Amino acid sequence: MMKPSDTQAVMAVVADIKPKQRPAGGAKPNGARKPRREKVPDVEAASEVVGEAAPPPAAVEPDPQLSPEQAEQARKKYLLKRFWISARGYWSRRGDKLAWPCTIALLILICVNVGFQYGINVWNRSIFDAIEQRNAPTVYFLSAVFVPLVLGSVSLVVAQVYLRMTIQRRWRSWLTTSIIGRWLTNGRYYQLNLVSGDHQNPEARIADDLRIATESPVDFVSGVLNAFLAASTFIVVLWTIGGALTLPIGSSTVTIPGFLVITAVIYAGITSTSMVVIGRHFVELSEQKNQAEAEFRYTLMRVRENGESIALLGGEEEERSGIDRTFAGVLGKWAMLAGQHMRTALVSQGSSLFAPVVPVLLCAPKFLDGSMSLGQVMQAASAFAIVQGAFGWLVDNYPRLADWNASARRIASLMMSLDGLERAEESDALGRINRGETKDDTMLNLNNLSVSLDDGTAVVKETEVVIQPGERLLVAGESGSGKSTLVRAIAGLWPWGGGSVDFHPGKRMFMLPQRPYIPSGTLRRAAAYPGAAEDWTIPQIRAALDKVGLGHLGDRIEEDAPWDQTLSGGEKQRLAFARLLLHAPDIIVLDEATAALDEKSQDRMMETIIHELPNVTILSVAHRAELEAFHSRKITLERRKGGAKLVSDIDLAPRKRRGLLGRALWGSGTSAEKRGAARKKS
């Protein structure tokens, strides 16, 4: 979380982070795939996802002269500014081509609709004057005129709703596309998990907070403009109709010019001031409520994603306790927010009940003495209500304004975290791992590679490794020695450190983590991932599944099921190996990719990969000594103070084949030889 001293919300840590760079020469760390056929996007969706966001703003340095409270206020103000820096791009040359036409059309409709309101207000006076005078022809004529007035006003309101919601939808689409693009670029969605900052639950911010942050401003602007035009128009009406009010006080009189206007302003001032005072904590409570809701959703999502582990361990009671605590926090914030809503409802409801009565009581003396007709009284009452509604716009919308304020700050916090990662790509304040090309036939070269945390703490230091095509390298070492971190740095997911990772130009890399990702949808899609399901035929996918021991699923390839929950850990790892066979990359990185398989299944899986992809280069991280039999070389990392170091780099001697086990395995492996000799002695 950000500290209060981080003035104007500039992230002290994130601003200097170095995210990864893509390897040159076409190397693709995130997976190898066949050329994907271009899909035809939805026409309407494509027309709304256009434009691009401006580059991130320059970092604002903290002001050491501010107190923590002042710094926190400055941070909140800057968050709103940061939101508008990106959001206003929708109306720029980088934005949506329909942004300005829709906005101008909406403004015109608002102005015309105020004209219709004035026409209905004049009609109101005329009809009551005609009724008072018992003028039947005029009453009938005005009754006929009322229908087109209403139809025109209703049509304008409907058109306003359409344009307003169109702007909201397209603005949300444009800004969401921009933020998601930044979030997914260069693995920033992963890097956000590794750095400090106020960007928890980014999925909730993008889905919920961004919706509120783009919907409310359009409503506010159109509401404010309508309120301003209505107030300006009908203040003139009140001044003209009401005139001056003369009150007898003792033996003298007091004349109040424009008494209806003065009363409307005073009345609106009292209600608006009351709302501001009563709802001064609305923003803070809305922000806290939104964060509590996001945490509650995240807790439930974690239970769903880890349902199998929780069920096997019998952790339902502990999970229920955690869910109850999180939900209690949500209810507590809602209770506090409900108190704010109750107090604001008191002001709003009281104001709406008094507003129609006040002008009638004020005009009653002039009506009774004959200086004001019934039509004028009703016109004044109608105009007073419109002016009061315009002045009291804040009374009705303050809760939404507070909710928007909280949502805009949350999405701005995520923007700032992404800003820091983007700036880090160009900054040299903290070392980063360079990525380039090898100059010969070398497949992968780790040149003085060091891996560090985002705060500069070294994890792995000064690693020199050269991997030739077809070589199978095993990375060993005790837990916590930095093996997985090294693999992530090679794959480009871990950007911080020094030295370089050089790939053979044009070669493709595929990484298999210990817990393979299984996307939603059909088994065909899961097997083809990250390629498109249609990139391979069903017979090709069935053959790949059969080779990795998943032939029993061959008839369910097109079945849409929750495969992430259906498949066991071992089946998921087998499915990941099926992806390897389909994508046929040049280099494979295995990070404990067979940990869920038994030894026999592990051996068969490695045999299959070596047999089907005989020229593939393999880089493995594993603890099982049995895997040495499938590797030609082994490096060992040893954890030391100041960062793990490479302490050995040895060639694994070819192992002689022996009996059934020898016919099942080939390659090299000193540990397997020792185990065989031990079994013979016993």
From TrEMBL:
It is a multi-pass membrane protein. PROSITE patterns: ABC_TM1F, ABC_TRANSPORTER_1, ABC_TRANSPORTER_2, SIGMA54_INTERACT_1. SUPFAM superfamilies: ABC transporter transmembrane region, P-loop containing nucleoside triphosphate hydrolases. The keyword ATP-binding applies. Residues 43-53 have a biased composition (Low complexity). The keyword Hydrolase does not apply. Residues 444-666 form the ABC transporter domain. Residues 104-403 form the ABC transmembrane type-1 domain. Keywords: ATP-binding, Membrane, Nucleotide-binding, Transmembrane, Transmembrane helix, Transport. One of its GO terms (molecular function) is ABC-type transporter activity. Residues 1-68 are annotated as: Disordered. One of its GO terms (cellular component) is plasma membrane. It is found in: Cell membrane. The chain crosses the membrane at residues 98-120, 140-163, 220-242, 254-279. PANTHER family: ATP-BINDING CASSETTE, SUB-FAMILY D MEMBER, LYSOSOMAL COBALAMIN TRANSPORTER ABCD4. Belongs to the ABC transporter superfamily. This is ABC-type uncharacterized transport system, permease and ATPase component. It comes from Mesorhizobium australicum (strain HAMBI 3006 / LMG 24608 / WSM2073).
